[in-house]
Amino acid sequence: MQYLLNFLMLLILMFLTNYFILNDILNINEYLKKRFKLKKNFKATKKLKIITSIINSFILSTVISLVIYLNINLFFKFIISFIILLILIYLLYGLLGKYLQRKKL
Amino acid sequence: MLFGFILDFEESMIGFLLWLDSIFYNVFTNLYKTFLNISNLNIFVEGSFNNIINNLYIIIGIVALFIFAMMLLRMMVDAEVNKSGKQIFDMIKRFVIVSIIIVLVPTMFNFLKDFQTSILARNVIPNFILGSSTTEVDTFDEDGNNLGKRTLSSSEASSLLLQTYANNMTVEIISGLMYPIDEEGNITDDLTINANKFFKGSTKAWLYGGLCVAGVVVGIVTVGTGTGVALVACGAGALAGNLAISGIEAVTASSYTWSYAKAHMVAYGDFSQITLFANAIQQGQMHYSAIVSTLVAFFLCYLVASFCIDVVIRIAKLTFYEVTAPICLLLSIIPQQKDLLGKWFKVVITTWAEIFLRIFLMCTVALLVGNIDFEALHLSIFHPIVSTFVICGIVIFAKSLPKIISELTGINSNNMKLNLREKLAAGSAYAVGGIIFGGAKRLSRGVTKQVKDNLEQDENGHWHRKNGVGWSRVIRSAAKGVVTSIPSVVTTQITAGISGYQAKNFREMLNAVNNANTQSEEKSEKIKKYIADHGGTLEGVGLGLITSSFEAFKNYIGLTPDYSVLKEQREAVDDISKTLKAIKSASEDYIEKHKSEFYINLSEEDIAELNYYRKLEKEGNATEQATARNWLQNFDQNHLSNRLDVIEAVASAAKSGGKNANETDEQYAARIAKATNNYNEAFKKMVDNFASRATVTRTYTDAFGVVHNVNGHYGAEKEAASIMANLGAINDKLKDYSTKAVVRTLRDGTPDGVVESTIGEINANNATKFIKELKNATEITEANIIRQYEELQRKNNKRNGKGGSN
Description:
The complex is a heterodimer. Chain A has one domain. Helices cover about 80% and strands about 0% of the residues of chain A. Chain A has helices spanning about 1-25, 30-35, 45-70, 75-100. The longest helix of chain A is centred in the last third of the chain and has 29 residues, at about 75-100. The radius of gyration of chain A is 15 Å and the shape is globular. Chain A starts with a helix and ends with a helix. Chain B is mostly helical. Chain B folds into 3 domains: about 1-185 and about 270-415, no CATH class; about 425-535, no CATH class; about 565-785, no CATH class. Chain B has 29 helices and 10 strands. Chain B has helices at about 1-40, 45-75, 85-120, 125-130, 160-175, 200-220, 230-250, 260-270, 280, 290-325, 325-330, 340-370, 375, 385-410, 420-425, 430-450, 470-500, 505-535, 540-555, 565-595, 605-620, 620-640, 645-655, 665-695, 715-740, 740-745, 755-760, 765-780, 780-800, and strands at about 135-140, 145-150, 180, 190-195, 255, 285-290, 455, 465, 700, 705-710. In chain B, a hairpin with a 5-residue loop joins strand 1 (about 135-140) and strand 2. The two termini of chain B are about 85 Å apart. Mean pLDDT of chain B is about 70; it is low at about 195-200, about 245-255, about 740-765 and about 800-805.
């Protein structure tokens, strides 16, 4: 239960960080546009911003929750995190991209 | 006798200055010790803090890795970002380097901390600059006899070492400001001089004797007021006199050497030793830079106090740099942020080295002040002035030293500023001051307000208790003032604290306190008004708060109607209100001019019959007119007391007729009020009913069974037409708004309900009902609609670059 609460707290924190800070830095629209060949006039709506923030916060909180309890060297913690991050980003943004393609955006 | 007195006075004054110096040097030594202690301390709790730091380190590191991963993926799919094709390989190379550095960061910080501790613990910089090893100290027996030097062992407490370092630094400075001179003018520390404690008693005698006289004078002056001040002042004076006598009795004499005193000061940090040399200074056996020495001591206190704040800031900074290291390091992998790594290293090393620069600065001051060639200066007959200039010059140089160091080393001197006032402002000292003063002022005002209710002012401006008010009631009201002021005190403290945070000096802080008090009073008035507006009951206020909170929440989450919808609502309310006013105005104008045509409490049949005969009187043949006139006269006689102009005449007569013989003032006032009220109510009733009365056509059946159509109010056809036109306009607007989304969508569950119920039978009353329902449907009061509308319009103007309010 405690772990779940921690995860939820982290999720909210990460969502806020993403929504207000990271989304603007990362320029995810460009990534989606290029990777899934979306229309040139594709623009990020508020809804999409919320969805990407949810995805990012989920990825980050999952990785942090997993790695923080691992009793290994810091270096390996970061290496494992990086690998999981790449996998999750690729998979979850893949799903979002397919959805956007289906919507013919 | 007089000469002896002057000499005593001179010695006392020197003693007093030395006593001041000793206080400042004590403060300086303790501050310097604190400075060294803080530098070595780990101010954060070890266990839990380290866990938090580690977790933060991981979280921040993973967020930075996430940014890096996203950048990498984007580079892989976006050819524009990875134009040369080499950038990905560069990034991976930097990633490997940075990953190794990240892992080494905690070790690096630990190394820096250990290195700093060993430098400070061994007093490396002062030993290097001042050239003295303070690991050897003098020891004394119980009688104060010097037993020679001994080396402090490493196992002795570091605090003793730090104390000794601090004492040594202070003695170095003092040595430059006071030193013995032999008969030939040479400086020699081992010269035996008569140090006595006379000045101690003398100074004490002067000070407390003065206080004694002052106390007695105050007692005599205030004895007439009977307030007890006189008694207290005399008591204090007597006590001071007693101390003065004890001071005179304390006079003893002993022999002493300056080198012995210095050794004692280094060993024990007892700087009151310098006060023993007042007599020697007065006799010319010692040189003493009076006043300058005090100023130097004060400046050093200021310097080291400023540095103490810097040291804590430095620790916090280093911790922050350590925690945020992964962000800077991982972001430096991104090509656009290449320089970040170098910047981070530079800022960490600069911050770490700040402590040594500060110690260097203090040691330089000590070195320069302690090594002035006073023998050379003594060649001049103006040597006291020259010495003063030299010492002042060194102090001024010390002040500008941070800037010089910055210019020489390239290290930003902003962090080396000595301005304690700015540091206090940056350290929220004025915010804390704002909180304290703001709260105190608000509390005192609250208490004063409550207490003043029980007091009254006489013609001389003195305050006294009101008749029948006891002290207990005054105290209770003061207590009540304290309790009732608590909420406003808290809000004032918050406001004053926030404003105080931005204050740059004491004056600005006081302004912030005053403004916060004014705002708090305004808020109190607003709250009182709010309570009064909501019926003054707990339920009313509670409901009001819930409603407004709900509205605020809706605003926050964006459920409030948008600009265009608000505009429509505003127009709807404005249009219909305007038309209703026009109807009311037309009715009032007509009734005002034709009061004799209006009777109150008539039935519908009576109205129809009356208007039939009015029409007959004007439009019938001669017989009909005569009949109608006769009928109208009879009707008027029967309903005379109900006629509007008669009711008004009764009210006027009551006012102008004066009081009846057997009538009291209250009865007379009540009679006038009743008559006036009767007229006002009758007039209002007529105005409210005029629209329906004037515009509705009635039917009258005469004695022969013939049915006649009768105008609503004969003679008011023109006004009736105007009212009808206005009602038609309302009707159109109601139809229009009934189809608009504003009404339909905002009314939950009953999309067209607002208008459907009223549109069928349109009249003035129903229009009013419509407005009410519109407001209910949108759950926004008219004032709110207008406020939100104006707010949005202002924002819109601002966005379009028009600026200002509408």
